[in-house]
Amino acid sequence: MNRGVIQAHRDNTAPTWTFCGYDARVDAQSGNVLPRRTAARPRRGGRHRSPDRISVPAAAPALVLAVPAAESPVTARVAAGVATEAAGLCPGAAISVGYAGGGPAGLAPVLERAVQAQPPQSQGLQAQGLQAQAGAAGEADGGGLACRYAAVLVPLALTPDAARDAFVASAAAQAGPGVMVAGQLGPHPVLGAALHDRLAEAGLVRPRRMAGLSLVTLDTGVLLAAAGGEDALPATEAAAIMLAARLGVPVAPACTGSPASVDAAAATLRRDGVTRLVLAPYLIGLEISAEELASVAAAADAECAAALGSHPAVGQLVTMSYGAALLEAGAPAPPGPGGGRTEGQAEYRTTPPSTDERSLPRRTSTSR
Fold first, then answer.
1. How many other C-beta atoms are found inside a 10 Å radius of the C-beta of residue 350?
2. 100-129 pLDDT, tens per residue?
3. Closest CA to 151 of 115, 100, 184, 125
4. Beta strand pairing status for 251-255 and 303-304?
């Protein structure tokens, strides 16, 4: 490099070349022969980079959280925390909470108000069963018509329960065909991290997860207690496997509604050499009261962590369930280039891949 070029770089007047989306500049002062690379598109910070954050179109159905308990200061605080987290992940969605029991805050009245708030033309289309025509008309006018559902009902529960599921289904049936009911929120890998957080906050396990060939002591065992009866055990077993892999300690599933399952899980852990039992509530805290949970832990002679409550993972799972329901319901995509697709956001509609052979990658072989 001649002296004039070096002086130009020192004066910051040398040209900049762009390769593959990066700006490359030769640094003559540092003597480094490699070019600097700066990202052409800066990365966003904060929770807006979350892959679970979705863009909600104006015609999307409301999100209704079904609380399997009566309204009280405790249940209202937990539901409000979950709703706040979900609102941050799906901005623009109309979120409401319905409780078990009667009154204006009951699930049935809340769903009725959500259906009544739906555009009149969509209500007529639902009554006539013309969802297909509605979707075609929505694509013709740019997605202006509403989704064929007025509300997506997401139960705040991690495992199935016959009584709760019947209550939710009854409330949805009373509201009419404009309500779509989502499944329970668990099991899911993000719940493993949330359970770990609650156990670590109580000082029952170490905060860091097991990684690699870690040496762990097996004197501590975890009772993963879900709300409900024996029908909740399969989902709890899957969550127990994920939590055991994260903690590196034995984990046994149990159900708070079945004392026999709690005794059997505790006996299994003690046969494995566990001398200290801790109870991890595999529930949000709305399913049973804190007093009932404490009595279950006392009967098993186990230390107890707090329920998940309004842990961010619960709001994340609510958002994911809502987004999956929108995909299934065929909600119109938000307006904008590419159907409103942006980085880190879920797509409401997908385009089938092209079958044109010219668009397929050529197959190459490395062997002669």
1. 8
2. 988 999 999 999 999 888 754 455 444 444
3. 115
4. unpaired
CA 224 to chain centre: 20
Contacts for 289 with CB less than 8 Å, ≥ 6 apart: none
Element (H, E) at 303: strand 303-304
Burial class of residue 24 (count of CB atoms within 10 Å of its CB; 0-12, 13-18, 19+): middle
- pTM for the model stands at 0.72
Q: How many CB atoms lie under 10 A from the CB of residue 95? A: 17
Each residue of 62-83: pLDDT tens digit? 999 999 999 999 999 999 999 9
Compute the distance between CA of residue 253 and CA of residue 256 in angstroms, rounded to an integer.
10
Helix, strand or coil for residue 284? Answer: coil
- How far is residue 246 from each of residues 66, 193, 206, 208, measured CA to CA in Å? 30, 8, 11, 9
- Looking at residues 167-176, what average pLDDT do you find? 94
Find tokens 């832990």 and name the residue: 297
Cα distance between residue 290 and residue 247, in whole Å:
25
Residue 312 and residue 121: Cα distance in Å, rounded?
Answer: 37
- What is the DSSP-derived secondary structure letter of residue 14? S
